[in-house]
């Protein structure tokens, strides 16, 4: 089956099969949050990005193998509603950006800084700290040695623009700067983008619109 990245709450997951990594995308909760289950194909170790809502659905997706880790992309409540229950059921270690950890009610085992590596089995993800949507938002970059990169952007980057900065010009300027310098300037057009809500995109699809985003201020 060809991966589309189009999922809906209550519907089936969509699975992106890479050579070393399996990426399962599922939509949960009243705000249509995306959660991503990553599985190393060599070791079967699993990592969950954003235990956003509906612990039952997430645990069903995780399956009997459990997860070693769960990463919360940022402090907003719609991204951690199921975190406590998922951690209690799996014993997973928790990761979050250092400057957002205090806003997440489940203790963060590993505070994450810009450039840190998070492993799932033999696969390495690189965290980048982007400031603007929240003080400590992180995105995770998987630089696939067999193909193009993949980036899990939380609420920092979507099809059509960056995340909500609540009409704060300073926060918007900060987020645009970090998205451009840490994502667009260093990753190719083929990079696949997995956002915290909605459909996927690529950097190539979004890059031509950066001047428009600057001009409109959101």
UniProtKB/TrEMBL annotation:
Where would I find the Metallo-beta-lactamase domain in this sequence? 32-197
**Which InterPro entries does the annotation name?**
MBL_Glyoxalase_II (IPR051453), Metallo-B-lactamas (IPR001279), RibonucZ/Hydroxyglut_hydro (IPR036866)
PANTHER family hit by this protein: CONSERVED PROTEIN (PTHR46233:SF1), HYDROXYACYLGLUTATHIONE HYDROLASE GLOC (PTHR46233)
Q: What is this protein called?
A: MBL fold metallo-hydrolase
Q: Which organism is it from?
A: Streptomyces lancefieldiae
